[in-house]
Amino acid sequence: MQLSLYSELLEKAQGCWPDWMSVIPPGKDFEGEAYRVTDYAAYFRYVKSRLELGMQNGDSNGTYPEPVPHCDVCRWFRECDAQRRGDDHLSLVAGIRRQQRNQLEEWTTDTMAKLAVLPLPLKEKPDHGSREAIERVREQARVQVQGRTEKKLVHEPLLPAVEGMGLCRLPEPSPADLFLDLEGDPFVGESGLQYLFGFAFKNAGELSYEKRWALNRDEERKGFEWLVDEIISRWKANPRTHVYHFGAYEPGALKRLMGMHATREDEVDRLLRASVLVDLHQVFKQGLRASVEEYSLKKVEPFYGFERRTPLDESRVAMRYVEHRLELGWGDEELPDSVRKVMEGYNREDCLSASGLRDWLEEERRKLVDRGTSVPRLPEKSGDPSEKLQEKLDRAAALTERLCDNIPTDPEARSEAQSGQWLLAQLLSWHRREDKRAWQEGYRLADLDDEELLDERVGLTKLRFVKRIDAGKQVPTDRYLFDPQKNNVRTGKAVYFGDEKTGEVVAIDHINGVVDIKKTKKTVAVHPPTVYMWDSPLRTDAQAGSLYRIGEWAAAKGIDAPGRYRAGRDMLLRKPPRLVGGEKLVPLASERPENTASRIVLALEDSVFAIQGPPGSGKTYTGARMICELVKRGKKIGITALSHKVIRKLLEDVVEAARDKNLAGVRCMHRNDNGEEGDRVAVAKKDNKEAWAALCSGKANVVGGTSWLWSPEPAFEAVDVLFIDEAGQMSLADVLAVSQAAKKLVLLGDPQQLERPLKGSHPDGAEKWAEDNSGGHGISIT
Ligand code: SF4
């Protein structure tokens, strides 16, 4: 809309509409994205006319300044804020949701003052969400109204204290505790930049502050390593050390940085496993109710009398200055001392404020304990990985070190072979990095209280046990009622309470709020008040194992040496296909694409060949015909892709192509636990061995399966050629893992296809999809 408006203004100035409008997104090269003005003009006119109509009608209800995230940076904030305050608008109540406001307005409870005296318990049941949730915001409004009427700060504990929540999240204080704060800009380059790392700690009774600046990627890595090393060495010296921070930003940044720079991963994992990081925002929000409009660090500071010396206005200006320069480049400029000082002051005061907040929260906890309330502390946890995991980590770390030995840290200074070898080293931990995100999400969900789970589509809250509907042979199935809420919980999914698996959803009725959960042996007698759905990561030992074997081989013999795993190694080195008999990649005169592709694949020698084309260009058709030509010559073929659907489609097309060509002896098999038997494609349901045996015996000569079929060691060179369909959707790590199954690889892909989003953060290059690394050597079909 903004670009269309600019285009319209330009039309007024120059007399005609521009053809194109462009936006320059942040990124490495600031490459513009161009849009045809006429593609958006009709929609622009429509929105504009509606706005003009709205303005003419002057309908004040239609233009109420409902708070939105943009308000934080909007120039109209003062006016809108004044109106909301004048109206005593419900949005001033901390933590209230839009749906709750709508419900309250329907009940004519349309101001904070009215909400504060809404009779409890509620007579009416809300259309959405639970009574308890409305009662909670009512209590929040009461405290806020009390605070403003009595012109004083008001707070009260949320009781009973629940183990692992609120004040029970506070560990025993230690003189070695640290108070952490990071400053980052998400718009620098493609992955943002953490530009200031700071922490405070007690030094001879006084708080001291340490910091590191990072104005480029290399300094960011060094700053991150410095910070993690500082934390680890202090934690080792005093195992009761904890690192306090306010909000989810700091742990999120540490997880991102360890993945992106592939450094200090083990250390950060240890800190997370041992719950060394303590989020004071969660402690406050879950433990106390306070007369504040939002539970932010700056808003709660008056409770513990923290006064800032660096004015927030000045800090904001300095922050804008630094972030503009980081996003657009410094040129010859250096960070001015005045700006540096303000930013350091701001960061330092955030750290000191966190320390003040921790002490105050401890004091609140002590008062409760003195009154006889039980507020159990978090139990101490070991950060050590299991013996088996430690062994794997050590093995991978040693191999990474071997592979990276003598490779320059500057990517520009690396030869092609060194770049490929470096990439291989980074891929060794790819699956672990990906899985980590899923585990971290599990830990995050386990930490949420009922109210927070209401905001998550994976949560079912306020569960009420109804009856046991099936005693089962080993485990029963229990029925529960829940308050209907927007969620994605589905049949067949595992649900958890805290960090314990409750069972599996066997039926769910979202309209009437009924869920049946098949329990586990451990939870037979447990009726959880709330559950959340979470998928634990699939085991990827087979893929990681394959990468390790390739890495070992390359470290011993060289990344570019003849021998095992050559096709996969060629892919890392972005080499063109090796062809025998003087064959060329270029199509012959009036040659059809499938004939070109078949000619090339027959001449392919221990390397990788890519075929690219947009949807509908006939890549699968071409692939199927290539497979038939290979089978005709007695070759065994493997097919893989990200999904069984894609694999099955190519298998079916092979059968079709064989029929078209009158080719007998094409025997297709699909390795799929849940695959449907068809008369054209056999299915190996039992296990991988069944599919491998079929290849050995000749029962099948074209076998499809996911990376779990082609990565294990017994699948080494199980086929002559492996076809990877929709290669743009498969990670480079997975394609390299399956590459061991054949001496020759064929990648079928669409360069325009949207990439599958990654879960983890990875070093540059390791986050790639297989097709990105084909080096552009192959053929394109249209
Ligand atoms: S402050 Fe700006 S964004 Fe927020 S309601 Fe007002 S006009 Fe809209």
Secondary structure blueprint with pairings:
Blueprint: H1 2-14, E1 20-23, E2 33-36, H2 37-57, H3 77-86, H4 98-106, H5 112-116, H6 131-150, E3 155-157, E4 178-185, E5 193-203, E6 206-213, H7 217-237, E7 243-245, H8 249-260, H9 265-273, E8 277-279, H10 280-287, E9 288-290, H11 297-300, H12 312-328, H13 337-370, H14 387-404, H15 416-427, H16 430-447, H17 450-454, E10 459-460, E11 464-470, E12 477-481, E13 494-497, E14 500-509, E15 514-519, E16 531-533, H18 541-557, H19 566-572, H20 593-603, E17 608-612, H21 619-632, E18 637-640, H22 644-660, E19 668-671, E20 681-684, H23 688-697, E21 702-704, H24 707-710, E22 721-724, H25 732-738, E23 744-749, E24 778-780
Parallel strand pairs: 4-7, 7-8, 17-23, 17-24, 18-21, 18-22, 19-20, 19-21, 22-23
Antiparallel strand pairs: 1-2, 3-9, 4-5, 5-6, 10-16, 11-12, 12-15, 13-14, 13-16, 14-15
Helix pairs in contact: 8-9, 12-13, 14-15, 14-18, 15-18, 18-25, 20-21, 21-22
The structure holds iron/sulfur cluster.
Mean pLDDT: 90
What top-tier CATH class of the largest domain fits best?
Answer: Alpha Beta
Number of domain units: 5
What would CATH call the architecture of the largest domain? 3-Layer(aba) Sandwich
Number of strands: 24
Number of helices: 25
As residue ranges, the low-confidence spans are: none
N-end to C-end Cα span? 34 Å
Q: Write down the overall geometry.
A: globular
- Helix amount: 40-55%
Strand content: 5-15%
> What strand order characterises the main sheet?
20-19-21-18-22-23-17-24
Task: Please explain how this structure is put together.
The chain is an alpha/beta fold and 782 residues long. It has five domains: 2-63, no CATH class; 69-139, no CATH class; 166-370, 2-Layer Sandwich (Nucleotidyltransferase, domain 5), CATH 3.30.420; 459-533; 562-780, Rossmann fold (3-Layer(aba) Sandwich), CATH 3.40.50.300. It contains 25 helices and 24 strands. The strands form five sheets. An eight-stranded parallel beta sheet has the order 20-19-21-18-22-23-17-24. It has a seven-stranded antiparallel beta sheet with strand order 10-16-13-14-15-12-11, with no helix packed on it. The mean pLDDT is 90.
